[in-house]
Every structure is written in structure tokens, then in C-alpha cells.
Write a structure and sequence with these properties.
Blueprint lengths: L1 E4 L2 E4 L7 E6 L2 E5 L5 H15 L4 E5 L5 H4 L9 E4 H7 L4 H9 L5 H6 L10 E3 L2 E6 L2 E7 L8 E5 L4 E5 L15 H14 L3 E4 L10 H20 L4 H12 L10 H21 L17 H8 L7 H12 L44
Parallel strand pairs: 4-5, 5-6, 6-7, 11-12
Antiparallel strand pairs: 1-2, 2-3, 3-4, 8-9, 9-10, 10-11
Helix pairs in contact: 6-7, 7-8, 7-9, 7-10, 7-11, 8-9
The structure holds zinc ion.
The site of zinc ion has 6 residues, from loops.
């Protein structure tokens, strides 16, 4: 638990996600909730130690992923989230709860704790933006999408603190299995415009706005590489299998997580592939191009900086593709031992569309 500004606290030690506490004169506002019941109770104890018996005004969920929402039941306060988070969480029924329990099969103590799991859905939802004014604080909820269709960030304009949820990842592969990559790039640009002094990401250590640059570069790199392959007529599976090995070393990955990361990256590639196929941007892709006969100038066009990227950003991308030895040993993968074993890898079916409402494809830890 650390105080990052007067009355603004974060805890980066819980499994599932980072959580925040904003103290106001009227009561407390919480951001996301620990997914392990004993950790959610511990968080509540910390909150009581710091703020006494102050009422909890709201719990805000930055997206609908289980790592952020499973603890909602412990705080006896209305939950605020995006309209689409509510829609996604409507599907969290008995099967979902059972799968959550099953995902801890190597940790029977946690399985026992989860016997009382109760899904608390948002009761207050919004579409584009919501301001909360309470006890001398302004807390602004902004829909950005990108990581998921429902992803929001929480901006404190006075303190210049941004709770970025899973929009910002520092030195680890972003979870993109439910992402819209174009929207994600827009979200990162929007964040840079806010000029935050501190960014609290959904996972890993506190960071600053600089963390958004390598992430933008990574997402643009994935997009460009996928686009090149689509132009060459690659299938979704060919695209994923030819690209995954290039992407893995771009962020540090421990050997024991490599398999899982590879499968997440494949999901990311499939996702971007579908995006291009669906998108109007795909209009300029000639699907009949023989993959062995791509003219040089097509490659050259692909090297151009897209999406308004600066030269600096392009340089970062180059560094990415050259440096295969990035390896930072830190704590940022904490909580990632929750396996996405029920995440579907659809690379055996090129034409299958991910169903965003399918809770099977929903991540556990992010
Ligand atoms: Zn998430």
C-alpha cells in the first residue's frame, strides 16, 4: 500500500490487478477489487486503517475482466463501470463461477475461499464520460476502449493521476485477446494528451506517460506486420505462426510463462487480423496478391509510418525488431500465474470470429 498523493492510495501487491483508493471528505472511492477473497478482505482492512469507518461511496471497475471485478462483493457499495462492462458481466453466471473456481485447481485454499463467490454487476453505467464530484475531489471516468470494448480510465485532473487499468502495460506483453488495436492506439494518444504525472497501470509497477510510447510502438508493429501478411495473402493461421516468434522477445518473458505468452500473442494477432479483415482499412488490401510475388513497393509502403506516428516512434519500433535480448526481471508479472487455460485459441480455424460475449474467451488475470 502506498500513498501517491494526499489521500490517494494504491496497492500493487494483490493478485489479479492493482487497486486504488481515493479518499474524499464524503467517503471513499475504490478502483477495481482484488479477485482473491482473503485479499479483498485485507484490502478492506487497510482501507479501514487509513480512513476509519468512512463510507465507501463507489467501486469503479476499469473493465469487466475477472481480475478486476471478482472482489466487488466485499465492499457494499454501488459499482460503476462502462455500459458494455455491464453487458459482458451479464453473462457471468454459474458456469463462469465454476470456471473461476476450476482455474485454481492447484490452489485448493483459494478454491475453498471462492465457494462464496457472488458476482456483483455494475448498477451505475455510462457511455463516454462521467464526472464524480465528491468531498472536494473530481474523479473523471473516460471510456477509451482498446484493451476491451468496455475499458475506461480514471483521471484525477487536480492531482494529474491516471488510473489506466489495462490500457497501459509497462515492459510486458499487453493482453489483446479482446482488443481493438486501432482504438487502443487512440486511447494511448488520448492519455498522452492528458499529461499525467503518475500512471497506475492495471498490472505491474507505477509508471509515467513514457510507458505509453513503447506500447504504442508494439501495437503499431503488430498491425503493420499483420497488414503486410494480409497483403501477401496469408491466412490467419499463417499470419500468426509466422509472426509470433518475432513478437515474443519484445518484452521480457520468463521461461515458464513463454507458452502462455505465445498463445496470448497468437490471440492478439488473430484479433488484429480480424480487425483488418472487417475494417474499411482492408479495402486497400488486394486479397488476390500472390504471396510469393509481392512487389517491392508494397513492402516499402508498409514501412511508412502509419497512424500519425512520429519518427521517434518509428525508431522505437526499429529498436524493438532488432533487440531480441530485452529481459527485465521484476515483479510485474505477479498474479499472472492465473492461467488462461480456458482462453480459446482459434488458430485452427481461420475463419472463426472471436465472440466478444463469449465468456470462455475472457482472460483470468487481466
Ligand atoms: Zn483487462
Amino acid at each position: 500500500m502506498q500513498e501517491i498523493a494526499p489521500g490517494v492510495y494504491v496497492n500493487l501487491d494483490f493478485r489479479g490487478c492493482n487497486v486504488g483508493l481515493i479518499e474524499t471528505a464524503d467517503g471513499n472511492i475504490l478502483i477495481d477489487t482484488p479477485m482473491i477473497p482473503s485479499e479483498s478482505r485485507r484490502w478492506l482492512e487497510y482501507i479501514r486503517q487509513i480512513t476509519g469507518n468512512k463510507k465507501i461511496l463507489y467501486v469503479i471497475n476499469t473493465d469487466h475482466h475477472r481480475g478486476h471485478v471478482l472482489g466487488n462483493q466485499y465492499y457494499d457499495a454501488p459499482v460503476i463501470a462502462h455500459d458494455l462492462a455491464w453487458k459482458n458481466m451479464r453473462g457471468y453466471g454459474a458456469n463462469f463461477c465454476q470456471r473461476v473456481v476450476d482455474s485454481f485447481k492447484r490452489e485448493p485454499k483459494i478454491q475453498a475461499e471462492l465457494a462464496d463467490l457472488r458476482i456483483v454487476r455494475p448498477t451505475i453505467t455510462f457511455d463516454t464520460r462521467m464526472d464524480i464530484e465528491h468531498g472536494g475531489r473530481t474523479v473523471r471516468l473516460i471510456h477509451v476502449g482498446g484493451h476491451t470494448e468496455a475499458t475506461i480510465v480514471i483521471w484525477m485532473p487536480e492531482e494529474k493521476i491516471l488510473f489506466a487499468g489495462d490500457t497501459v502495460w509497462w515492459d510486458q506483453h499487453p493482453y489483446m485477446a479482446q482488443a481493438n488495436s486501432k482504438q487502443w492506439l487512440d486511447a494511448l494518444r488520448q492519455i498522452r494528451k492528458l499529461h499525467p504525472q503518475i500512471i497506475v497501470p492495471g498490472h505491474g509497477p507505477l509508471t509515467t506517460v513514457e510507458a505509453t510510447e513503447p506500447l504504442s510502438a508494439y501495437i503499431r508493429f503488430v498491425r503493420r506486420q499483420v497488414r503486410i501478411r494480409i497483403r501477401r495473402g496469408y491466412s490467419k493461421q499463417e499470419t500468426a505462426s509466422s509472426l509470433v516468434k518475432t513478437l515474443v522477445p519484445m518484452f521480457s518473458v520468463t521461461p515458464e510463462r513463454r507458452g502462455k505468452i505465445e498463445s496470448q500473442i497468437k490471440q492478439a494477432i488473430n484479433r488484429v487480423y480480424n480487425e483488418y479483415k472487417k475494417d474499411a482499412e482492408a479495402d486497400d488490401i488486394d486479397e488476390d496478391v500472390d504471396k510469393d510475388a509481392v512487389p517491392e513497393e508494397v513492402e516499402a509502403v508498409d514501412q511508412e509510418v502509419e497512424d500519425g506516428a512520429t519518427e521517434d516512434e518509428a525508431r522505437i519500433e526499429e529498436e524493438f525488431s532488432e533487440d531480441d535480448s530485452r529481459s527485465v526481471d521484476d515483479d510485474s508479472h505477479r498474479g499472472d500465474e492465473f492461467n488462461d487455460e480456458d482462453d480459446d485459441d482459434d488458430d485452427e480455424d481461420d475463419d472463426e470470429d472471436e465472440d466478444e460475449d463469449d465468456i470462455d474467451s475472457e482472460e483470468i488475470d487481466d
